[in-house]
Amino acid sequence: MSRLAQRAAQGIAQCTEADLPELREFREQMYPYQSVDQLPAASFEWLSRTNPNTSPESTGIWICRRDGRIVGEQAELSFSLKVADEHLRAATAIELMVDPEWRLRGVGPALSEVQRKGVRVACALWMSDAAYRLYQRSGWIDLGEVPHRVLLVSPLGVLRNVATTKRRIATLAILPVAAMMCAYVAVRTRLRVRGTRLVETDAFDERADEIWSEASSSYEVIAHRDLQNLRWRFDECPYARHYRRFYLFRGARPVGYLVVRPGRSRRVPILKVVDYLAPPATVPVLLAHTVRLARRQSAALVEITTRDRLTSRRLTRLGFMPVEKVERWRGETTGVRFMVSVEDDDPIREIVTTPGAWFVTTADGDLDLAEFSQEPAASATGAGR
Question: Quick one: which of 41, 144, 222, 256 has the fewest CB in 10 Å?
């Protein structure tokens, strides 16, 4: 840490519940055009105290004060990480924001460093250009983008919601090809889902541990997705009512789980895959079921953001296309930036800095939570420098 950052660190402290009103005011100033409701008492309790992976001495939120007022914040989503056969504490850095008057004065690096020192592996997903440069200067490793894919379910559903004439004409021009592709996807879906069934559940139960025990060994680096963690992330989350949870059964045996939620993108109704887990050979079957779910909900597209090296080619064959190929409908969209930080002499450094070793979904960051609270800047989008 530089001397400037060391001086900045002197004003950094753990956020307490008593600090929340002032922190909310700070966020309202930083995001004047957004609805800032991500840190009420209920969300603070969920993020800081009920998370099974948060250390007793940490609330998971840090604030920096200057002249008696908050000028910066940094939070984290703590999780347990499986690296090969080792299990360790890690965290995803979220909500890095610094008052413009205090940028380039060491506040951002100091906040980031304080958060980073508390875990063996730190991750960052979905960040602004400014935050990306900050992490680069701090020695974080760029693991590229987590791909964003789209599966077309209903070309007419897209056409009905295309607003501009130019895009409507472009959509009409490719409608026959899109219809043929959807028919192909439908056939492959029916073939893949044979012998399996998707069953909705109101909350996760012991079957989640069964799935984790069978599937986790196939993935080199993956956040724990056992019952304890799934309950916290989806059942106890302040936004739990927005999620739909499913188990995939082959016969009487649970072989995977799926978490989705409905949404809209540029007026087009979509079904978003938030999280999933199954043995690699079963993942295409699990995601094939999303086509049927989408049709039942009248969704025109299925969206998924995931890094899953073992099944990426199978997703393409199933019909999931990189988002760049559907820009004519969606506008410019890229994948989600992914960075990690680990000490140079840590024996796990080689594996955790290998992009293909990771299994990552939307649930490993706060991208989904930020959309709920209408805060597109929630993950280090503020130029914390």
Answer: 41
Tokens of 174: 């490719």
Between 289 and 170, the more confident residue is 289
Number of Cβ within 10 Å of residue 134's Cβ equals 24
Whether 251 is in a domain gets the answer: yes
CA–CA gap between residue 269 and residue 190 (Å, rounded)? 23
Name the average pLDDT for the chain. Answer: 81
Judged on CB neighbours under 10 Å (0-12, 13-18, 19+), 341 is buried
E strand spans, the chain? 12-14, 61-66, 69-83, 86-98, 121-125, 141-146, 148-152, 196-201, 221-223, 244-250, 253-265, 268-277, 301-308, 321-322, 336-341, 358-361
**Per the structure block, which two tokens stand in for 105?**
């004065």
* Of 125, 108, 37, residue with least CA distance to 71: 108
**CA 237/CA 114 separation, integer angstroms:** 26
- Do 171 and 329 contact (CB within 8 A), yes or no? yes
At 189, the pLDDT band (50, 70, 90 cuts) reads: low
Residue 355, domain CATH: 3.40.630.30
Q: Can you give the pLDDT at residue 278?
A: 96
pTM: 0.83
Residue 84 belongs to domain spanning: 3-145+337-372
- What are the backbone dihedrals phi and psi of residue 276, each rounded to the nearest 5 degrees, phi first? -165, 160
For 153-180, how does the pLDDT look when each residue is reduced to its tens digit (9 = 90+)?
A: 765 445 455 545 445 444 444 445 444 4
Distance of CA 76 to the CA centre of its chain: 13
Last residue of a domain, one of 334, 356, 380: 334
